[in-house]
Structures are given as C-alpha cells and as structure tokens.
Q: What sequence folds into this?
C-alpha cells in the first residue's frame, strides 16, 4: 500500500491523538489500509509548517521560478516512473476500472508537466499611466492554501489543485476524501523525492468535519480550494466568509446531454452512455439528463439500452471490467434510493443491468446501470445529482424547447450536444448556461483548457492558465518618475 502516514512538515506522522480509520476496497468491502484520523491539532501543525515555508520564502519568494518548474517536472517524471503502482492503488482504493485509472494517472503526470511549464511564465503587466509615472502590475502567490478534494478522481482532483498552487508559489495542505486517501499520501512521497522542501506540501487525512473544517477556520490559511458537493461547498463559502478567505468551489451538476435527430448515432449513442455510465456515474459533469429529439426517441432509447446492457461490472482490477463498484456502501445506498425515487415518481425504468455474481465480489458496492424514461424535467431524478449510473431520458421537440429544458436546473457545470449541423450546435452551445460545453463528444477535460461551473456548480475556474488565477494575488506598484 506504500506510505499510510500523513505528511506534515517533511515528516511522516500519525494523528496527534493516535487515532486511525480504515480505507476500504469497494469491490470487496475489505480493509485496504489504516490511515491517521487527522483533527484540529494535526491541521494546525500542517498549516503552521505551510505558513512558515511561505513566509520565510522557502517556496514562493526565495526559490527561483526555474527551480519550482524543475521540481514540478520531476514530479511528473516520478508519476510516470510509478505509473502501474499508482494505477493499481487508485483502482483498489476507489474501485474504478483499470483503463479509467490509467487515464487519470496519465493526466496527473501531464498536470505536473503543464504547470511546471507555467511556473516560469507567470507575469504581470505595465499599463501606461502617463509620462511621469510607471505602474507595474505584478502577480504574487496568494499564500497558504487548503485544498479539499473528493473521492471520484482522487489523485487527479488533488493534482488539479496542487500543481497550479505550487507553480504559483503557494504552500499547501491537502485533505483527501476519507474514502480514498492513499494516492494523496503517495503524492507526498513523490513531492519529497522530487525536492519539494519541507512544509511546502502537507497532507492531512481524516473526516471532513474533523480534518477539513479546521482548514476553513484557521487564521493562517489564506485560500480554500474545494471540489465536492454543493451542500459542503455552501458551508465552506459561509464559513470562509468570516475571515474573508478566498474560495474556489468546483461543485456538482445535473448536466444535459442533447441528441438531435441528425446526429451521427455511431458517436452519439456510445458517447451519451459513456457520459452517464463512465466512472460508474461518479462524475460531477455526468450528462445524466439525456434529451432526445422526439422523432428518433424510440430508436435512440433502444440503442442506448443495448449499449448499457453491454457494460460489464466487476472488480476494477479485472481488465474485462468496464464498470466498477461505487466508492462506498453509503454511496451505493444513496444511488439505489434514487432508483426507488424514480419508480415512485412514475418514471418508467426502461433498463436495469445485473450486478456481478462472483462470490468474491458479494460484499462489493455494485450498482447496475439503469435507464429511466421521464416525460418531465420536474422529477427529482431529473433535478437532483445522483452521482451513480442512472440515466434519465426525456424527449424534446426543437432547439428552443431543449434549451429551455437544459437550462431548467439550478446547476450549470457541463452540457453535451450531438448534431451534424454546426450552426445549430453553436447556437445551442451559446444558449446553454454551463461552464463546459462539448459538441459531438462528452466528458473530455484537457488540462490545457478550462473547467468550472455556472450557477450552483461552483465559483472560479480550474485547469489551463485559468487555474493559476485562483492561487495568485495581483498587486500594483506605482513609481513616481519625478517629472512633476
Ligand atoms: P463531499 O461530501 O462534498 O466531500 C468533498 C470533500 O470535502 C471531502 O474531502 C470531504 O471529507 C470534505 N468535507 C466534508 N465536510 C467538510 C467540512 N465540513 N469541512 C471541510 N471539508 C469537508 O463530496 P463527495 O461526496 O466526496 O464528492 C462528490 C461530490 O463532488 C459531487 O457532488 C460531485 O459533483 C462533486 N465533484 C465536483 C467536481 C467538479 O470539478 N466540479 C469534480 C468531482 C466531484 P470526507 O471525505 O471526510 O467527507
Ligand atoms: Mg477506499
């Protein structure tokens, strides 16, 4: 399992009070490892170390950008060197299939490479202010950052925050999700080997209210970047407001997936299904509200059902598996609860697959893919984020109709549009209130580009150069040139 202790101020440590908790293998329900149950005292140690490393210039001020860049590039290399090991660890801790974990870890390596490049390219501006003065607008790291991440892409969500924060010159305390702490601990080992100085990168494991909450209230933390549920996001925003801490929120969604009648069905059907069932549906941007133009509705539903029936559930470690277990018993029960909700709301359960019969997986948290037909966007299964392999299909009449339906949600993370008509695609893309819109695709999230939500899907942006803004302050230095 590799290291299972926390990483604070360059040292491997247990919780101050000695407590631990278990992380499980969701395919079997068995204990994978026991990790420290961090709490306020541990967070305080980590934040104090991060504060010291920031204030004494260990990272942001005294380390030249080139050195920061080299260290991040080394981290990328180390992730590649340990690729298979990291992939297996991610599969075991969160359940996803091997192919999905390979995609995640590959992107983790690229994330460090990409932001390693940026470390030497963060620059300001010199706006003209007349002949007798010079105004320098410079970018500076925001300071100590608390990074709180979920369990669905454990190492990738962590890298998505750690890499730009370190590139910007910030020091960080990372709090991984309680269900999936192992790759974050491995990331600390990689950071240390790559030459990240003590105190710059710290990992505190534990439960949200115990190991996450103290980051929100600690006066030495300047910024919180959070990825997770909307409700915890609201709590974070509210708590951080007391100290006016900077906050970035990447939250959930109920994203529309729109299939027009003229779409290339050889792409639209598998793409739509992958957009809902990929990663077991545990995806913030899942296109879980599937709108299908009425004239092709029956054919599309039959094709999506056939596609879903071909999904093979099993242990993520089995190369034949295309859908793993959900992350926890709690998540499984939550998702199965929504299948009951859909039935009781009168939606038609058009398809439900089978869970694995292998006795070795009898205690795993499997949920078979399900497809509901709904006639209204008002049902709970069309409005609430399920975060599991449950698709809700709704027919629509025309562009205006589907844009209205797509936007009839409190969320605004993503949308997918399938059509051969480029004008219709772009007209729809402009009209949908969401931070990410895919045309003839679903779910790609290239690290060079942009991620983030409109409305209740979040505040701020990640990925690409946009993520750097979340870890930078901007300062004006005004120089009187003495001409007046
Ligand atoms: P969650 O319950 O909100 O938890 C996310 C993280 O916050 C975990 O590390 C959690 O710790 C921590 N946390 C919980 N309560 C806290 C508190 N009071 N103070 C500080 N931290 C606290 O979300 P989740 O169930 O892990 O993940 C699923 C959600 O994440 C979905 O809504 C999904 O849409 C969203 N998500 C969004 C994106 C995006 O980019 N927009 C990406 C992935 C996931 P514990 O693990 O100990 O509870
Ligand atoms: Mg686990």
A:
């Amino acid at each position: 399992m590799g290291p299972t202790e926390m990483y604070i101020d360059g040292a491997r440590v247990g919780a101050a009070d000695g407590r631990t908790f278990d992380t499980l293998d969701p395919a079997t329900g068995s204990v994978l490892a026991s990790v420290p149950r961090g709490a306020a005292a541990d967070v305080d140690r980590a934040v104090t170390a991060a504060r010291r490393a920031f204030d004494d210039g260990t990272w942001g001020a005294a380390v030249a950008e080139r050195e920061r860049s080299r260290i991040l590039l080394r981290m990328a290399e180390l992730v590649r060197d340990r690729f298979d090991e990291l992939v297996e660890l991610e599969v075991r801790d969160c359940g996803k299939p091997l192919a999905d974990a390979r995609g995640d870890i590959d992107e983790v390596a690229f994330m460090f490479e990409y932001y390693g490049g940026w470390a030497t390219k963060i620059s300001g501006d010199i706006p003209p202010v007349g002949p007798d003065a010079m105004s320098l607008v410079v970018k500076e790291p925001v300071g100590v950052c608390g990074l709180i991440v979920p369990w669905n892409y454990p190492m990738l969500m962590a890298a998505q925050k750690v890499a730009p924060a370190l590139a910007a010159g910030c020091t960080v305390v990372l709090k991984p999700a309680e269900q999936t702490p192992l790759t974050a601990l491995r990331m600390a080992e990689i950071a240390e080997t790559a030459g990240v100085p003590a105190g710059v990168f710290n990992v505190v494991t534990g439960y949200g209210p115990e190991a996450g909450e103290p980051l929100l209230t600690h006066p030495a933390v300047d910024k919180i970047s959070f990825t997770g549920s909307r409700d915890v996001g609201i709590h974070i925003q509210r708590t951080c407001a007391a100290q006016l801490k900077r906050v970035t929120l990447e939250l959930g969604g109920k994203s529309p997936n729109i299939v027009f009648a003229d779409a290339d069905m050889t792409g639209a059907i598998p793409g739509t299904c992958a957009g809902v069932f990929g990663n077991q549906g545990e995806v913030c941007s899942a296109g879980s509200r599937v709108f299908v133009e009425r004239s092709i509705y029956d054919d599309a539903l039959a094709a999506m059902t056939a596609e879903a029936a071909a999904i093979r559930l099993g242990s993520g470690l089995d190369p034949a598996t295309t859908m793993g277990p959900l992350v926890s018993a709690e998540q499984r029960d939550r998702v199965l609860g929504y299948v009951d909700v859909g039935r009781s709301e009168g939606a038609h359960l058009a398809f439900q697959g089978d869970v694995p019969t292998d006795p070795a997986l009898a205690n795993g948290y499997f949920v078979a893919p399900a497809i509901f037909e709904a006639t209204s966007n008002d049902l709970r299964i069309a409005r609430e984020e399920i975060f599991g392999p449950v698709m809700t299909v709704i027919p629509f009449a025309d562009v205006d109709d589907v844009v209205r339906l797509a936007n009839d949600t409190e969320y605004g993370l993503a949308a997918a549009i399938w059509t051969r008509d480029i004008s219709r695609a772009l007209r729809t893309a402009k009209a949908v209130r969401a931070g990410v819109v895919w045309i003839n695709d679903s779910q790609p999230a290239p690290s060079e580009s942009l991620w983030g939500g409109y409305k209740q899907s979040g505040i701020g942006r990640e990925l690409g150069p946009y993520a750097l803004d979340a870890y930078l302050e901007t300062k004006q230095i005004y120089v009187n040139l003495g001409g007046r």
In short: The chain has 15 helices and 21 strands. Residues 23-24, 32, 93, 179-180 surround magnesium ion (ligand 2) (CB under 6 Å). The chain has a mean pLDDT of 97. The longest helix spans residues 98-118.
